């Protein structure tokens, strides 16, 4: 399993962030401009919850099935937190979003 990371030097220490952290935080905000069905609260809650999940999964080994299950759980939690109206386009967008973010993290080799 590969993880693409970006390393930043802060003082004397280095901070490595998987590239998917950055993608997962900004992608729902990008979807906000594509579909009017996305509300700002939903986009922000999805961004934050998925970023937290990716941070945890970076340090805790999870199988692919657990990763998918937790990702969809986060999606459902974000949906209820934001009180948005669920529709077909939203479900397709979120499925693609989670599939792409995890595929990218598994396919791209590590960058230091």
UniProtKB/TrEMBL annotation:
Keywords of the record: Membrane, Transmembrane, Transmembrane helix
Membrane spanning stretches: 15-36, 56-81, 88-108
Lineage top rank: taxon: Eukaryota
Protein name, entry field: Uncharacterized protein
């Amino acid at each position: 399993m590969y993880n693409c990371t970006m390393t930043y030097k802060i003082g004397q220490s280095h901070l490595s962030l998987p590239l998917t952290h950055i993608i997962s935080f900004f992608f729902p905000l990008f979807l906000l401009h594509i579909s009017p069905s996305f509300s700002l609260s939903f986009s922000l809650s999805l961004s934050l919850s998925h970023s937290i999940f990716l941070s945890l999964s970076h340090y805790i080994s999870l199988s692919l099935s657990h990763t998918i299950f937790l990702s969809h759980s986060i999606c459902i939690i974000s949906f209820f937190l934001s009180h948005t109206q669920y529709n077909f386009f939203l479900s397709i967008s979120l499925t693609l979003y989670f599939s792409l973010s995890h595929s990218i993290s598994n396919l791209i080799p590590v960058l230091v």
